[in-house]
Each structure stands twice: as structure tokens, then as C-alpha cells.
Recover the amino acids of this structure.
């Protein structure tokens, strides 16, 4: 009797180990496929729609970056809006960071076209996205840096829009040469 139970327990343990190994192989294959999809997107090749239906959030984020590189900003922002609620805090911070980057690119593009009002809207959206990223991951250095860039863009746009509207006046002394409290240079 005792030997029979030992055999059953050993067989059950062997079956559980086999199932765990199969699950591990399955997850490994998914990771390999996701890495291949991300590499293809970053190399400039879109992936087939069948793969997109089952794509993981990191693959979808890579596709948003692909759209941004091909100047399909609306498609990228739409995909990033979907990804805002998926993944852990670090992943969502990266989503907000990429949203901010797209908004900042569009703000700078509007400044070059002298569309200051539209540029101001995009810059505010970029700042909000960077702030959301920093709420999730306070140490996100790239988001901090780009937030500072977006904040410095606004006074420049104010000076450009007011300079066109007002007659020239005597230069006033600027009390601050930059934003206080933000580090300059690398840490």
C-alpha cells in the first residue's frame, strides 16, 4: 500500500513539473515572438495584422513608436491612448512619456509654421503627459528633462506672440534666466 501511494505522489509531481515546463516554454516562445515583432517595428517594418490582434502591450508601444517615426502622429496617439490603462506603472509612464514626445514634436512643428496658438495647446498637452509619467515614476529622468524643455518653450512662444502684437519697448531685466529648481546638465 505504501509503495503504491509513493508511486502516485511521484507521478503527480512529475506531471506537475512537466506542466510547469510546458508553460515556461510557451511563455518563452511568446517572449521570442514579441521581441521579433519589436525588432521588426524598430527596423521600420510593420507587422501583419494577425500578429497585432494578439500583440502584447510592449509590442503595441513599439508600434506607436513606429507610427511616430513615420510621422503618423494621429495613429500613434490613438494607440497610446489605448495603452494608458494597460501594464504596470513603469509601462504606463513610458506610454505617457511617448505621448508627451509626440505632443512636443507637434508643438515645435507648429512653432516653425508660426501657428503659436496651436503650438501652445500641444505644449500644454505635452507637459501634462510628462507630469503623468512623473507621477507614476518620479525618477523618470527623460520625462523630467522633456518637461523642462516644454516649460521653456512656453515663455518663448509668449514672447513671440506678444512681440507681434505690441510696439517695441525698452528691454526689462529678467529676474530668472531659467526655471528654478530644475537641474542643468547630466547628473
Amino acid at each position: 500500500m505504501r509503495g503504491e501511494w509513493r508511486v502516485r505522489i511521484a507521478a503527480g509531481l512529475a506531471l506537475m513539473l512537466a506542466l510547469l515546463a510546458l508553460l515556461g516554454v510557451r511563455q518563452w516562445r511568446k517572449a521570442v515572438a514579441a521581441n521579433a515583432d519589436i525588432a521588426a517595428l524598430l527596423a521600420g517594418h510593420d507587422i501583419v495584422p494577425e500578429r497585432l490582434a494578439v500583440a502584447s502591450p510592449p509590442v503595441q508601444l513599439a508600434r506607436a513608436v513606429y507610427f511616430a517615426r513615420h510621422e503618423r502622429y494621429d495613429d500613434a496617439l490613438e494607440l497610446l491612448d489605448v495603452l494608458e490603462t494597460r501594464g504596470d506603472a513603469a509601462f504606463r509612464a513610458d506610454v505617457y512619456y511617448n505621448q508627451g514626445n509626440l505632443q512636443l514634436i507637434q508643438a515645435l512643428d507648429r512653432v516653425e509654421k508660426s501657428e503659436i496658438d496651436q503650438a501652445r495647446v500641444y505644449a500644454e498637452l505635452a507637459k501634462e503627459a510628462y507630469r503623468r509619467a512623473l507621477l507614476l515614476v518620479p525618477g523618470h529622468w527623460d520625462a523630467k528633462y522633456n518637461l523642462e524643455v516644454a516649460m521653456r518653450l512656453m515663455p518663448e512662444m509668449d514672447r513671440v506672440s506678444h512681440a507681434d502684437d505690441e510696439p517695441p519697448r525698452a528691454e526689462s531685466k529678467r529676474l530668472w534666466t531659467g526655471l528654478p529648481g530644475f537641474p542643468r546638465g547630466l547628473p
Remarks:
- The chain has one domain: 32-163.
- The radius of gyration is 25 Å.
- The helical segments are 2-42, 49-53, 57-69, 73-83, 89-112, 116-136, 141-165.
- Residues 32-163 form a domain with the Serine Threonine Protein Phosphatase 5, Tetratricopeptide repeat fold (CATH 1.25.40.10).
